[in-house]
Amino acid sequence: VAALESDLFGLDAWSEAQIGAELSAPGRAMLVAEHAAAPGERAAVVGYAVLGVAGDLADLLRIGVDPTQRRTGIASALLAHLLGAARAAGAERMLLEVSAANTGAAAFYAARGFVEIHRRPRYYRDDSAALVLQREL
Question: Residue 12 and residue 78: Cα distance in Å, rounded?
Fold first, then answer.
């Protein structure tokens, strides 16, 4: 997961220690998608998502899919599972942040009912704004 995180997010990637710290925090869960491996071989991580739930609010903290596996339904499956998990944990809405420069991800979330509720200028290291998106559960 840490290697894929680094490949996907570059300078904004969480370190292995940060991933561990996130997962040890209360209300956190990680879902990992793996590509099936041949017998005796290690399965390859092709996607992951991190969820935080506190009371009636869920935060999609991270979602990432190996670029070679995009448009295969992995991100949709990860998100659908976490939406259900957030509802089951008592959350009434989900928030997330995405770079305004990442138009593909913004379109992905919009197609799944997320709407922009706030914009944080120059939030990321590349000076792109963070779009704060929300979806009712």
Answer: 21
30, 32, 34, 1: which is closest to 16 by C-alpha? 1
- Other CB atoms within a 10 A radius of the CB of residue 110 amount to 14
- Residue written as tokens 């997962």? 23
Total-model pTM: 0.90
Other C-beta atoms closer than 10 Å to the C-beta of 50 total 23
Residue 72 scores a pLDDT above 90: yes
State residue 14 phi and psi, 5-degree precision.
-75, 140
d(CA 15, CA 36): 26
pLDDT at 36 (0 to 100)? 81
Q: Residue 76 class from Cβ within 10 Å (0-12 exposed, 13-18 middle, 19+ buried)? A: middle
Please give the Cα distance from 36 to 34 (Å, whole number): 6
86: left (phi over 0), alpha (psi -120 to 50) or beta: alpha
